[in-house]
């Protein structure tokens, strides 16, 4: 599992996957109104979820990729941050402050693209 997937699962919650060989029962096609309502429910409030986690008051997850990873229980080592940077398109990650700012912002942008409601300050 990728580092970004671990981050996303920790914040969004894991979706149950069907067991091998077991097909879920068929579901009727939703009406357009039902589909719009379901999509609205699928949006995850990233800020609220992170603020609700134990330790959020002691960690600066809003600006620090290391604190963000610590808060959600993902190893924040240099190796994992470098792997995350590679997943998100940065091949020259060296762990500098500038790299970590980029990594935090890009992680938030990817959370937004994957159904997260992220504060605008993280999307610039």
Give a quick rundown of the structure:
InterPro entries: DUF3597 (IPR022016). The protein has a domain of 86 residues. 49% of the residues lie in helices and 3% in strands.
Strand order of the largest sheet: 1-2
Helix % is 40-55%
* Rg for CA atoms: 17 Å
Strand content: under 5%
Notes on the structure:
With 124 residues, the protein is mostly helical. The protein has a domain at 3-7 and 42-122. Helices cover 49% and strands 3% of the residues. It contains six helices and two strands; from the N terminus they run ααβααααβ. The protein has helices at residues 3-12, 32-42, 46-51, 65-71, 78-87, 97-113, and strands spanning 44-45, 116-117. The chain has a two-stranded parallel ribbon with strand order 1-2. The radius of gyration is 17 Å and the shape is globular. The two termini are 28 Å apart.
What tags apply to this protein structure?
DUF3597 family protein; two-stranded parallel ribbon; 2 strands; mainly alpha
Describe how the helices and strands are arranged.
Elements: H1 3-12, H2 32-42, E1 44-45, H3 46-51, H4 65-71, H5 78-87, H6 97-113, E2 116-117
């Amino acid at each position: 599992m990728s580092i970004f997937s671990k981050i996303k699962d920790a914040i969004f919650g894991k979706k149950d996957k069907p067991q091998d060989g077991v097909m879920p029962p068929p579901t009727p096609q939703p009406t357009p109104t039902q589909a719009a309502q379901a999509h609205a429910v699928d949006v995850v409030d990233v800020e609220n979820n992170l603020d609700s986690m134990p330790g959020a008051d002691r960690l600066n997850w809003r600006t620090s990729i290391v604190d963000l990873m610590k808060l959600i229980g993902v190893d924040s080592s240099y190796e994992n941050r470098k792997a995350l940077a590679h997943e998100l398109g940065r091949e020259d990650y060296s762990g500098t402050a500038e790299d970590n700012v980029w990594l935090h912002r890009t992680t938030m942008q990817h959370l937004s693209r994957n159904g997260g409601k992220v504060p605008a300050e993280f999307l610039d």
